[in-house]
Structures are given as structure tokens and as C-alpha cells.
Design a protein that fits this description.
It contains 8 helices and 7 strands. 32% of the residues are buried. The protein is globular, with a radius of gyration of 19 Å. The chain starts with a helix and ends with a strand. The longest helix is centred in the middle third of the chain and has 18 residues. The protein has one domain: Rossmann fold (3-Layer(aba) Sandwich). Helices cover 32% and strands 19% of the residues. By secondary structure, the chain is an alpha/beta fold. The protein has a 7-stranded mixed sheet, with helices on both faces.
Length: 265
């Protein structure tokens, strides 16, 4: 039986009620607030949703806003498994809530490809967005370098990273609570940084926040970077903090980190 069966049930309920859609719309609004000083989005822009994932919520929201959007991910391949059929239904539920707000719906443009060697010409995109993907890239410098190549001068990258050092950074706990508030019974807080009793289900690069900032600073002008979501502060006891002294309290409680970077003119 899947360890996430209960989470899947909750996720379906969140999709049906629009809870997940509203959360993704909050992320989109946060992105808009961050990029508006640097990029005019009152007109359609050429956008890239990097590692769009199976549910593709930000891809859908950008399309609904009238922008010309391309999504690239190794998951964008034809398949007819039960899991893929389930994800197609989930995507439809996302689109149903977005359409009900009267937005337009241009055609899809989803490519199966490697995000570290993208099949795009230089200086193609005005905006690159990525949500909860960078922590899975095993060659972050190569991805950032290729982002710089495909972005036009003055273009903006908005990246939301699920931080590995956070309470849920091991990606093996409840993914329906964002931020994570309650741990399953018999699970130690920050297990992935301590005893690693829980198995890992997804590839993770285990990078820390300064590493991401440094990687982007090599190629871009970073106009803003900050913790965008806090979690686990109520579980960080003095004993755990002492055990994890190699990490600051700030990085242990930062669940998501946003980097806003601009390609110099």
C-alpha cells in the first residue's frame, strides 16, 4: 500500500473544493508582485515554466493570464498508466476552477526535455518561473547556466525552492499540509537531517540556501531573495537545535525560498 494513500485522498478533496487552486493562485500573485518592477506583464510575455510537473498549475495559470507559455519537463511524455490518467483528471480539476473565473484558455505547449540542455534558441524568454523543482535538479549549475542562455536581456527568473533543510525538506512527509504543521506518529522532526529512518522517495540534491543564491549570482543580477514560507518553528526544541547546530535556526524553519533574478541588459 502506498505510504501516501491518505495524502492522495486529501489531495483529491483539495482539488475538488478548489483549495489547491487557491494556493497556486497565491503563488502566482506573489510572483506577480515580485516581478512587476522589472517586467511589464500588462502585455503578453513569452514565459517558460521550468519543470512544470505533472499537475502543471503555474503553467495553467500563466496561460489563463494570456501569456505565451512553454512548459518543459521529463514528465511531459505520452503515457496511459493509471497514475497518468489520474494526473490528467487532476489537471482538469485545476483548469475547471481557473476557467470558472472567466479566463481565456490558449492551446497547450508542453515539451519533454532536459532542463539543463533545453531545445530553445538563445534569448527566447521574458520570464522563467519554477516552483518546487530546483531541489530535485542534480546539476543545478548547468540548469542555471542554460536558463541564462535562453532568457533575453532584461528577462526575469522567479524561482520558488522547497528547501531541503526545512521540516518537510526530505519530501517523505505529508504533502497536503503547506506549510507542514503536524508530523505522523513515531516520526522524528527533521529526520532527514538526523537519523534518516524514513526512506527517501524522490531524488534531492540536498543543497542549502546559500548554494542556490551563489549559483544564480554567477549569471544573474539577484534583485531579491527571501524566505517565502516558514514551518516547524513549534517543533524546533533546544535539544534538536543543539543536535543540528551545523544549521541555523533560520534555514531549519524556512520551508520555501524565493529567488528573483534578472539577466543584465
Amino acid at each position: 500500500m502506498s505510504p501516501y494513500l491518505n495524502d492522495y485522498v486529501i489531495s483529491v478533496w483539495q482539488l475538488l473544493t478548489g483549495v489547491r487552486t487557491r494556493r497556486e493562485q497565491e503563488v502566482a500573485r506573489e510572483r506577480q508582485r515580485d516581478i512587476v518592477p522589472y517586467l511589464d506583464t500588462s502585455r503578453p510575455v513569452r514565459a517558460l515554466d521550468l519543470a512544470n510537473g505533472r499537475l502543471r498549475p503555474q503553467y495553467l495559470l500563466l496561460k489563463a493570464a494570456g501569456h505565451s507559455v512553454v512548459g518543459i519537463d521529463l514528465l511531459n511524455r505520452p503515457s496511459s498508466s493509471w497514475a497518468d490518467r489520474g494526473y490528467r483528471v487532476a489537471c482538469w480539476l485545476y483548469s475547471l476552477h481557473i476557467r470558472s473565473r472567466g479566463t481565456s484558455w490558449p492551446g497547450d505547449c508542453l515539451l519533454c526535455g532536459d532542463v539543463s540542455a533545453m531545445p530553445f534558441t538563445d534569448n527566447t524568454f521574458d520570464l522563467v518561473t519554477s516552483v518546487a523543482a530546483f531541489e530535485h535538479f542534480l546539476d543545478v549549475p548547468a540548469v542555471v547556466a542554460d536558463l541564462h542562455r535562453v532568457m533575453r536581456s532584461g528577462g526575469v527568473a522567479w524561482v520558488w525552492i522547497h528547501v531541503y533543510t526545512s521540516l518537510s525538506g526530505g519530501h517523505n512527509l505529508n504533502f497536503t499540509q503547506i506549510p507542514l504543521r503536524k508530523l505522523p506518529k513515531c516520526v522524528d522532526a527533521w529526520d532527514h537531517l538526523r537519523k534518516r529512518r524514513l526512506p527517501a522517495y524522490y531524488p534531492l540534491n540536498e543543497w542549502r540556501i546559500p548554494q542556490y543564491v551563489e549559483a544564480f549570482a554567477r549569471h544573474f543580477q539577484i534583485v531579491e531573495h527571501r524566505c517565502a514560507m516558514r514551518e516547524g518553528e513549534h517543533l524546533l526544541t533546544p535539544e534538536i537545535e543543539a543536535e543540528l547546530a551545523a544549521y541555523s535556526r533560520d534555514e531549519l524553519t524556512c520551508g520555501a525560498y524565493v529567488i528573483v533574478a534578472r539577466k543584465p541588459l
